[in-house]
Description:
Blueprint: H1 5-8, H2 11-14, H3 19-35, E1 43-49, E2 52-57, H4 60-68, H5 70-81, E3 88-93, H6 103-106, H7 124-134, H8 140-162, H9 166-177, H10 183-189, H11 195-218, H12 225-243, H13 252-259
Parallel strand pairs: 2-3
Antiparallel strand pairs: 1-2
Amino acid sequence: xxxxxxxxxxxxxxxxxxxxxxxxxxxxxxxxxxxxxxxxxxxxxxxxxxxxxxxxxxxxxxxxxxxxxxxxxxxxxxxxxxxxxxxxxxxxxxxxxxxxxxxxxxxxxxxxxxxxxxxxxxxxxxxxxxxxxxxxxxxxxxxxxxxxxxxxxxxxxxxxxxxxxxxxxxxxxxxxxxxxxxxxxxxxxxxxxxxxxxxxxxxxxxxxxxxxxxxxxxxxxxxxxxxxxxxxxxxxxxxxxxxxxxxxxxxxxxxxxxxxxxxxxxxxxxx
Length: 271
C-alpha cells in the first residue's frame, strides 16, 4: 500500500526543489499500482505536467467510462499522494508499451515484487545529494522516508536513460529543441511514438538537462560569460519542460516554482 506523501514529507521539504518531482512520481505510482490493477483494461499514468495527470487507456470505451469517474478517481489519487497534488486527470486512448519485466502481469500471472529500477546502483555523488537534501528535516523517521523516496526517484531516472526505445530517443531530440511542446504536438512530429515513449522521453530529457548543469558547474562555467548563458538556458529548458510554457509565455516566478530550489539560482545568471 502506498503511503500518503503528506505523511512522509515534512513542511521543510515542501520548500525544496525535490517535492514536486517526488509528488509527480508518487501520483503516477498511485494510479499504476493502486488503481490500474482494478480496471478491466490496460492503462498507465504516463505524465504529470502542471498538476495534470495524463493516463493512457487501451480501450476507447474505458477511456469514456474513466472520464465519467474522473472526480472520484482524482480524490483517490490525492488521498494517496496527500493534499491536492493533482488538479486534473486526462484520459487518452492509445497503446500502452509494457516493460519486459512486467509482461507476466499483463498475462495475468503473478506480479513482480518490485519495479526493475530499484536494482539500479547509484553513484556516490547521488547519495551525497540525497543526504544534503534531507539534512533540513529534523524528524529521523520522516528524513529516512524522504531519503528512500528520493533514492527511488533517482534510480527510476537512471533506469529510464538506459532503457530508451528508438521512439523515445526521437522525442528527446525534439524536446531538446522545443521543451515546451505538448504531447499532441510531439505525437504529430514523431508519429511512431506511443504515450509511454513520450513520457519516458520527458523524464529522460529532464535528467539530461540536470546532468549537463552539474557538469558545467563542475567545470567552473559560472566564472565565464558563455558558461553562465549555457546554465541559464538549461535551467529555462527544465522549467519549460515542466510547465509546457514557451520562452515568450513563461515568467520568472513560474519558472522558479517549476525548477525547484536546487536549480533556481541558474535562472538569474547573466553574462
